[in-house]
Amino acid sequence: xxxxxxxxxxxxxxxxxxxxxxxxxxxxxxxxxxxxxxxxxxxxxxxxxxxxxxxxxxxxxxxxx
Length: 65
Description:
single chain; mainly alpha; 78% helix
């Protein structure tokens, strides 16, 4: 379900929209719980890099990432 939501958000809102990045972070947590650590790390890094770029390094959402 999250992958489907992510695809829709990326298509409609764009890959760097805050709502899209929230789904990316949620997926990273789910993947971590499933033991898919490499995929989880990739998703976490994506969320962090995009948030740093658009929100800045000191924004609360960036720091959460």
